[in-house]
Amino acid sequence: MRRTLFTTLTAAAALALSAQAGEAVTYDVDGMTYEGYLAEATREAKGLVIIIHDWGGLDDYEKTRAEMLADEGYDAFAVDLYGAGNRPDTTEARKELVGQLYGDRDMMRARILGGIAKAREASGENEAIVMGYCFGGGATLELARSGEGEGIAGYATFHGSLDAPEGADYSKTDAPILVMHGGADAGIPNALAAQAADAMEAAGVTYEVQIYSGAPHAWTVFGSDRYREHADQQSWDAFLDFTAHNLQGG
C-alpha cells in the first residue's frame, strides 16, 4: 500500500515542482529578511516538520517535499538560510554561501532557529522534526550537536554532509537522529557515515544510519540523472516512520 502511495506521490511530485498549494512566509532574523515556505497539513496536523534546503537555496524541490509532508498530515515549513531572493544558480555562488555559513556556525544556527520560530508562529505547532538535504543535512546535524534546538523531537538527514568541526561531538544532543546515506556517494564516503555513527554512539545518542546501495549523492532529486527511486522510496518510508514514532501527534 505504501509503495503504491509513494509511486503516486512521486508522479505527482513532478507536477508539484511547477505548482504548489502552500504559501511563502517572510520573516526577519538579526535584521535580515528571509522567505520560507509553509505547506499546511491537508487534515488535522500531527506535528511540524522543518526542512533545511540544499546548497542551491530554498526552491521548488523543498516546496514539493513540504507538500508531500502536508499530504501525510504534517505542517511543513522550509526555512531559508540565504535570505529572501538569494537563490544562487552557479557552483561558485553556492560554494561561497555555504562557505560563509560553515565559517560562522553561530550565524548558521541563528538562521535555522529563526526559521523554526517563524514556523511555529505560522503553523501553531510547537514540537518539530528537523530534516535536511545535502548541505541542509549538515546544517541539521550542526543544530543537533549544539543542543540549542528546544522542542525538537528528532533530526533526519538525506544524503547530508556528515563531517563535523574538529572537537565537535554529540554530547549535547537530546533527540534521536536518522542518517540516510547513499552507498555510492563519491563525495561523502561511507567511512564518514561510520565515523558519525561512532560519534553518536560515544555520546549515547539514539540514532540510526541507513545506507542505500547504488545511490549516489542527491539520489532524491526528482528528474535528475542521480535520482534512484528505490533509495528515495526506502528513505522516505524510513523518515515517515521516524517522524510518526518521535512526534507525539504522529
Provide the descriptors you would attach to this structure in a database record:
single chain; 250 residues; alpha/beta; Rossmann fold; eight-stranded mixed β-sheet; 7 helices; 20% strand
Largest sheet features: 8 strands, mixed
Quote the average pLDDT. Answer: 93
How do the helices and strands follow one another from N- to C-terminus? HEEEHEHHEHEEHEH
Q: What is the gyration radius calculated from CA atoms?
A: 17 Å
Low-confidence spans: 14-18
Strand order in the largest sheet = 1-2-4-3-5-6-7-8
Oligomer designation: single chain
How does the overall form come out from the CA principal axes? globular
List the helices and strands and how they pair.
Blueprint: H1 2-16, E1 23-29, E2 32-39, E3 48-52, H2 60-71, E4 75-79, H3 91-103, H4 105-123, E5 128-133, H5 135-146, E6 152-158, E7 177-182, H6 190-203, E8 207-212, H7 229-246
Parallel strand pairs: 3-4, 3-5, 5-6, 6-7, 7-8
Antiparallel strand pairs: 1-2, 2-4
Helix pairs in contact: 1-2
Structure description:
The chain has 250 residues and is an alpha/beta fold. It has one domain: Rossmann fold. Helix content is 41%, strand content 20%. The chain has 7 helices and 8 strands, in the order αβββαβααβαββαβα. It has an 8-stranded mixed beta sheet with strand order 1-2-4-3-5-6-7-8, with helices on both faces. A hairpin with a 2-residue loop joins strand 1 and strand 2. The longest helix has 19 residues. The two termini are 19 Å apart.
